[in-house]
Amino acid sequence: MKFNPFIAFFVFVLLPQQKFVQVVADLDSDKQALLEFANGVPHVKKLNWNLATPVCTSWVGITCNTNGTDVIAVRLPGVGLYGTIPSNTIGKLKALKVLSLRSNNINGSLPSDIPSIPSLQCLFLQHNNLSSKFPVTFSPRLRIVDFSYNSISGTIPNVDLPSVRVLNFSYNNLSGSIPSSFKRFPSSFIGNPLLCGSEPLKPCSESVVSPSPSPLTDFPSPKTGSQNQHATSKSKLGVGSIIAIVVGGLAFVFLLLAVIFISCLKRKHSGSNGMLKSKISQNDKPNDFGSGVQEAEKNKLFFFEGCSYNFDLEDLLKASAEVLGKGSYGTTYKAALEEGTQVVVKRLKEVAVGKKEFEQQMEVVNR
Ligand SMILES: *[C@@H]1O[C@H](CO)[C@@H](O)[C@H](O)[C@H]1NC(C)=O
Ligand SMILES: *[C@@H]1O[C@H](CO)[C@@H](O)[C@H](O)[C@H]1NC(C)=O
Ligand SMILES: *[C@@H]1O[C@H](CO)[C@@H](O)[C@H](O)[C@H]1NC(C)=O
Ligand SMILES: *[C@@H]1O[C@H](CO)[C@@H](O)[C@H](O)[C@H]1NC(C)=O
Ligand SMILES: *[C@@H]1O[C@H](CO)[C@@H](O)[C@H](O)[C@H]1NC(C)=O
C-alpha cells in the first residue's frame, strides 16, 4: 500500500493511529502471500487459513512477532504438501525467520526468493523431493539449513556462508567436489553418491569423476597413479614382502590382545568412575533406559523445530534424566542436555507401526 506523502502527513498529524494502519498493511501483505502459497501448493491436510480470521492468532503453523506486526515463522511439517512452491509467495514474507516445510512431498525447484529472504535464520526442508540446483543466494542471517533427503542435483557453488552453523545436504544427488567454502562442514554431504571430497566422502581422483566409480576408490588408496599400475605392483609381490606382511599382521594382533587384556585388568581394578563409563558405553543406564535403546536407534526421531540445539540419541544417553511420569504407553523423562537445553523424552513401550506412520503421528503430536 503506497501513501501519497501529502495525505500521509495529514494522517500522521490528525490520527494517532497512523502506525496501526501501517501494521495492518504489513500483516495484510503477509496474509496475502501465505494464501497464495496455500492455493498454489496442494496439501493433504486442511489448513484453516482464510481471509476472515486473524493470521497471528488462529492460523495453523504461523507465528508472529510479539507486536503482531509481522509473520516471523511458518511451520508446516508433515501436512502433506505436494507439488512445487511458486515464487513470490513465502518469499514475500519480509520478516520471516523460521521456515519449516520438512517431511512433505514438495518437488521441483525451490524458488530462489526463499533461501534469500533477508531475515531468514532457519530453513528446514529435509525429507521432501526437491530437485533444484544448490541455491546460490542465501540470507546473510541464515544459521541452520537442512536440505537432507531431497533430490538436489548439480555441483556445489563456492558461496561463503559465514553465519551458518548447521548445514545439511545429506542424501541428495549432488555431484562434483566440495568447494573450499564448505570444507568446514565435513559430515553435511554424506549420501551423495556422485560427490567427492574428504573423509566421509570418497576422495576426489580422476577415476571418481567418471559416473561409474570403481570399487577401489572406496578406500583412500595411497597415491596410486592409475589402476593399471596398482594391478602390476600387486602381481610383483615378492616372498620378502609377503613375510613382512605376515609378521606385521601377527605383531598387530598381539598388540591388540595386549591392549584388550590391559584394559580388562584396569576395569576390574578401577573405582566407580570406570564402572559408570563402561555402563554408558554399553547403552545400559541404571534405570530403564536400557533394552529399548537399540530399537530406538533405528527410528532416530527428534522433533526439532525452531532454532535451538540439535540433539540425538547420543546426547540423550549422556544427559542426566529425571522421571516425570509413567503413562500407559511408556515413561516420560526430563533430560538436561549439555548446553543447558531441556528436553522431554517419552519412551514408548511397544509400538507396532512403521517408521513413516510413526513420524506422521509424531508430526501431529508436535503441533
Ligand atoms: C515492536 O514494534 C516496534 C516499533 O514498531 C519496534 O521498535 C520493536 O522492535 C517491535 N518489537 C518486536 C519484538 O518486534
Ligand atoms: C511434482 O509432483 C506432481 C505430483 O505430485 C507431478 O504432477 C509433477 O510433475 C511433479 N513435478 C516435478 C517437477 O517433478
Ligand atoms: C521424487 O520425484 C521423482 C521424479 O522427479 C520420482 O521418481 C520419485 O518417486 C519421487 N520420490 C518420492 C519419495 O516421492
Ligand atoms: C542425479 O544427477 C545426475 C546428474 O548429475 C543425473 O544424471 C541423475 O539422473 C540423477 N539421479 C537421480 C536419481 O535423480
Ligand atoms: C545430516 O543428516 C544426516 C541424516 O539425517 C545425518 O546422518 C548427518 O549426521 C547430518 N549431518 C549434520 C552435519 O548434521
Automatic annotation (TrEMBL):
<dbReference type="InterPro" id="IPR017441">
    <property type="entry name" value="Protein_kinase_ATP_BS"/>
</dbReference>
<feature type="region of interest" description="Disordered">
    <location>
        <begin position="206"/>
        <end position="231"/>
    </location>
</feature>
<keyword id="KW-0472">Membrane</keyword>
<feature type="signal peptide">
    <location>
        <begin position="1"/>
        <end position="25"/>
    </location>
</feature>
<keyword id="KW-0732">Signal</keyword>
<keyword id="KW-1133">Transmembrane helix</keyword>
<dbReference type="GO" id="GO:0016020">
    <property type="term" value="C:membrane"/>
</dbReference>
<keyword id="KW-0067">ATP-binding</keyword>
<feature type="domain" description="Leucine-rich repeat-containing N-terminal plant-type">
    <location>
        <begin position="28"/>
        <end position="65"/>
    </location>
</feature>
<dbReference type="InterPro" id="IPR001611">
    <property type="entry name" value="Leu-rich_rpt"/>
</dbReference>
<dbReference type="InterPro" id="IPR013210">
    <property type="entry name" value="LRR_N_plant-typ"/>
</dbReference>
<keyword id="KW-0433">Leucine-rich repeat</keyword>
<dbReference type="InterPro" id="IPR032675">
    <property type="entry name" value="LRR_dom_sf"/>
</dbReference>
<dbReference type="Pfam" id="PF00560">
    <property type="entry name" value="LRR_1"/>
</dbReference>
<dbReference type="GO" id="GO:0005524">
    <property type="term" value="F:ATP binding"/>
</dbReference>
<dbReference type="InterPro" id="IPR011009">
    <property type="entry name" value="Kinase-like_dom_sf"/>
</dbReference>
<keyword id="KW-0677">Repeat</keyword>
<feature type="transmembrane region" description="Helical">
    <location>
        <begin position="237"/>
        <end position="265"/>
    </location>
</feature>
<dbReference type="InterPro" id="IPR050994">
    <property type="entry name" value="At_inactive_RLKs"/>
</dbReference>
<keyword id="KW-0547">Nucleotide-binding</keyword>
<protein>
    <recommendedName>
        <fullName>Leucine-rich repeat-containing N-terminal plant-type domain-containing protein</fullName>
    </recommendedName>
</protein>
<feature type="binding site">
    <location>
        <position position="355"/>
    </location>
    <ligand>
        <name>ATP</name>
    </ligand>
</feature>
<keyword id="KW-0812">Transmembrane</keyword>
<dbReference type="Pfam" id="PF08263">
    <property type="entry name" value="LRRNT_2"/>
</dbReference>
